[in-house]
Design a protein that fits this description.
Elements: E1 12-16, E2 22-25, E3 32-35, E4 41-43, E5 49-50, H1 52-57, H2 65-77, H3 80-95, H4 97-107, H5 111-116, E6 119-121, E7 128-134, E8 140-146, E9 154-156, E10 168-172, H6 175-185, E11 188-191, H7 203-206, E12 211-216, H8 228-234, E13 240-245, H9 246-250, H10 255-258, H11 262-274, H12 283-290, E14 296-299, E15 302-305, E16 308-312, E17 318-320, E18 325-327, H13 329-336, E19 338-341, H14 356-365, H15 371-383, H16 394-404, E20 416-420, H17 427-437, E21 441-445, H18 449-459, E22 462-466, H19 478-485, E23 492-495, E24 504-507, E25 512-516, H20 523-526, E26 529-533, H21 551-580, E27 586-587, E28 593-594, H22 597-612, H23 619-630, H24 635-653, E29 661-663, E30 666-670, H25 686-694, E31 701-707, E32 712-720, E33 724-725, E34 728-729, H26 730-733
Parallel strand pairs: 10-11, 10-12, 12-13, 14-19, 20-25, 20-26, 21-22, 22-25
Antiparallel strand pairs: 1-2, 2-3, 3-4, 4-5, 6-7, 7-8, 8-9, 15-16, 16-17, 17-18, 23-24, 27-28, 29-30, 30-32, 31-32, 33-34
Helix pairs in contact: 14-21, 15-16, 15-21, 16-22, 21-22, 22-23
Length: about 750
């Protein structure tokens, strides 16, 4: 970029001059400023003049020459249009109540504060982006970003120091936390400068005789990015230095909430005094011990860490999510500061199906691989070969479940599937299709418990168990115990070893599906399972034969598998966002809600539904399915609810002839209007019907009300217009939007 382009970020009312220069309103005073074609400026308002470096210095008087050169370099790289797009993103975020709600919950900060903070949260890894510094014309010059998993900010542009700094000044990991602390304590709070930024300012002079307090979450950054180089640079000029870890202050409470208490505002300053001027940790000690102690575990076959998704490959290496890169296990551990939990090196090729050539194919054709297309392809592949009969909507559940296996590590729990049907109904065929299309699918029949545990622990496979009734017995059967343990991410099994050998904890969390003729006999396993019931197809129904060796079938399988891996490699951030937006209680079509274990079962399926079908057309189907499978005891109630809503729909089509009254937020329907309705046929008398409706809302009542169409008062059932039945209020079912004058009760 030409030096002259920089001025477009600083000046208003810019026009070009005859000598290929610029002129515009001066940011230094009232009047005009002239820019030559070489980039030099002359301010007619103040008489200032000089080079572009001199111009930049006019807004950064405390910055060193090194810092000014960095500013010039960065601002020549970042275009004005790119920076203006940041402003639009901030404005969009302020108007997006859903994203504001998620950001507020994740960061534990008030929504109103986030609106004023000049930042926005993207759905990618919950990344929060802050505009830290503006030009005089309102264009962003410095932008920083951080995530929940990496709270230390990264800056685009050169971070600026404030012109005024309080006697006690806080240094923290990112500018959003800095703004929050400044708001609560009324003291300066600034993101600490990293080692590469120390030459931008003369920090020893700026902070001379100040009390410097560092607040941080943990030592989860390199030494160069830590606050230690900064503290070493200023320790001889400041009055005092303190470094406090949030949890040491709050004893586990959220610091964001803790600091709002006036008592704690004084306590943080007292604590800083108590630990002032402790010796700084040397660089070699930090690198050898402290940083290495913060390593996260990453499972080889499939895992998530440090904002990236990972898959193990059959050559023993690991691929990271976008931007795609392939690493050895050692390289992954060094680059991402993780401990890779992997099988022995000689067993790694067997523990993963993903090949480097598949990664190359995905990378080359990602523009043509969409989640929607992958879902549609897999759904058709299954429907062409499997007959579900009257349970045909189960195909949606099976399709979602298979594709979800490629990202199951994003969920704290993943439901099991139980395929039940008579002999010849296609259970084994469906299992083989699931094995061929799911993540690390493995089909087994009459597998030993020891072999099963090793397979799950090493490969994180989608385990497909055929003839399940022959491999399980009572509740205490070892297979059932393994399945009970492997339903949640925390599921581990202690394998007792012999003399001289150390006992092992095996990780048994993975997707699992089993097929049998009979129902699941153990309640604990049934509570972790979504049932899929198959029917035997008649000879008149033409199905495509399942032949995994067929050339066309192999091509379709390749397309599905590549689409499955692409979900984790390119879309895991958005799935995490959808998980965060799930409500605490899931409302079902009947108006009932699920939580606890039932929500654990439903959550992955609902998140995947919203991911593969953002239009929302599939959500009602899936919620109806989940309702039938999770709450089978309520099927009689569901039937009554359906008849009730059908009655409301019939009335809404002929509302002119329906006798009713509106009184404020209640609709009153006389007893005689219920005669001959489908819903009344489900009850022995109208009193029973009234009692049933009252279970949905305590304000339902019976009174004598004036009914305009009848011209007299009649005993009527009063129902709140806001009563929600099947995700729809009574006012909407009956299309009653307001109280009309003619229907107002008469005195």
């Amino acid at each position: 970029m030409n030096k002259i382009e920089l001025y477009y970020k600083y000046l208003n009312n810019i026009t070009e001059t005859n000598r290929q220069g610029l002129k515009g309103d001066s940011p230094f005073g009232q009047g005009e400023i002239i820019i030559s074609n070489s980039g030099d400026f002359k301010c007619k308002a103040t008489g200032k003049y000089g080079s572009v470096i001199d111009f930049v210095k006019g807004f950064n008087l405390q910055m060193t020459q090194t810092g000014l050169v960095k500013v010039l370099t960065s601002e020549l790289i970042l275009t004005k249009s790119h920076l203006e797009s940041m402003l639009r993103s901030v404005d969009s975020f302020k108007k997006d109540s859903a994203r504001l709600k998620v950001a507020g919950e994740k960061l534990e900060l008030p929504k109103e504060f986030l609106k004023d903070a000049q930042g926005y949260m993207s759905t990618r890894d919950f990344q929060y982006n802050m505009i830290d510094h503006y030009s005089p014309s309102g264009i962003p010059l410095t932008v920083s970003s951080f995530t929940l998993y990496k709270p230390l900010s990264r800056s685009i542009g050169v971070p600026r120091m404030p012109l005024k700094i309080s006697e006690t000044v806080f240094f923290v990991e990112n500018s959003l936390m800095a703004k929050w602390i400044s708001k609560q304590l009324k003291l300066s709070s600034i993101p600490w400068p990293k080692e590469d930024d120390l030459l931008n300012y003369e920090y020893e002079r700026l902070l001379k005789e100040k009390n410097v307090i560092v607040l941080y979450e943990d030592f989860n950054f390199s030494y160069n990015d830590s606050f230690f180089p900064f503290l070493e640079a200023i320790q001889d000029s400041v009055k005092s230095i303190s470094a406090l870890k949030y949890r040491d202050l709050t004893q586990g409470t959220s610091f964001v909430k803790w600091i709002r208490d006036p008592i704690n505002k004084a306590r943080v300053l007292e604590k800083a005094q108590d630990c002032a001027d402790k010796p700084l940790i040397p660089k070699d000690m930090y690198q050898k011990s402290i940083f290495s102690s913060t390593k996260e575990e990453l499972t080889f076959a499939q895992g998530y860490s440090r904002g990236f998704f990972f898959y193990g490959m059959n050559d023993g290496n690991i691929v990271q999510s976008h931007p795609l890169d392939i690493h050895s296990v050692d390289s992954i551990e060094r680059k991402f500061n993780v401990n890779v939990v992997a099988p022995a090196e000689e067993n790694r090729p067997r523990s993963a199906k993903l090949s480097p050539s598949t990664i190359l194919n995905i990378s080359e054709s990602i523009s043509n691989i969409s989640p929607v297309t992958t879902y549609a392809t897999l759904r058709k592949f299954i429907s062409d070969r499997i007959y579900f009969g009257e349970n045909e909507q189960d195909i949606e559940l099976v399709t979602l479940w298979i594709l979800g296996s490629y990202v199951y590590q994003l969920f704290n729990a993943y439901p099991y599937l139980h395929i039940q049907g008579l002999a010849g109904s296609g259970k084994t065929t469906l299992l083989e299709i699931i094995e061929s299309t799911s993540f690390n699918g493995a089909l087994a029949s009459r597998i030993t418990s020891a072999r099963m545990m090793k397979e799950i622990n090493d490969t994180k496979c989608t385990l497909c168990l055929d003839e399940f009734e022959k491999s399980t017995g009572s509740q205490s059967a070892s297979t059932t115990q393994i399945l009970n343990a492997g339903y949640k991410k925390s599921g581990r099994y202690l394998k007792m070893m012999g003399d001289g050998e150390k006992d092992q904890f095996l990780d048994l969390y993975s997707p699992k599906v089993y097929a049998s003729i009979s129902a699941i006999k153990t309640d604990s396993l049934a509570s972790r399972t979504l049932p899929i019931r198959q029917q035997k197809a008649s000879s008149s129904i033409a199905l495509t034969p399942w032949d995994p060796e067929d050339r066309t079938t192999r091509q379709q399988l390749t397309s599905i598998i590549e689409g499955g891996y692409a979900i984790g490699l390119y879309h895991h951030h958005y799935l995490q966002y959808l998980i965060a937006t799930m409500p605490n209680k899931v409302l079902l079509p009947s108006g009932l809600s699920i939580e606890g274990r039932q929500k654990e079962l439903a959550l992955p399926i609902l998140v995947l539904t919203n991911f593969f079908d953002p239009s929302g057309s599939l959500e009602a189907t899936i919620k109806n399915l989940l309702e039938a499978k999770l709450l089978p005891a309520n099927q009689d109630s569901f039937k009554k609810i359906k008849m009730f809503t059908n009655t409301l729909k019939e009335w809404s089509t002929d509302l002119e002839n329906l006798p009713y009254a509106l009184d404020k937020e209640m609709v009153w329907i006389p007893n005689q209007a219920w005669n001959n309705t489908a819903i009344l046929s489900e009850f022995d008398r109208k009193t029973s019907l009234y009692n049933w409706i009252k279970t949905f809302h305590s304000d339902v009542t019976i009174e004598s009300k004036w009914i305009p169409k009848l011209g007299k008062s009649k005993s009527s059932i009063g129902i709140p217009l806001a009563l929600n039945i099947n995700n729809k209020e009574i006012r909407s079912w009956l299309e009653l939007l307001s109280v009309s004058e003619e229907n107002k009760p008469k005195t």
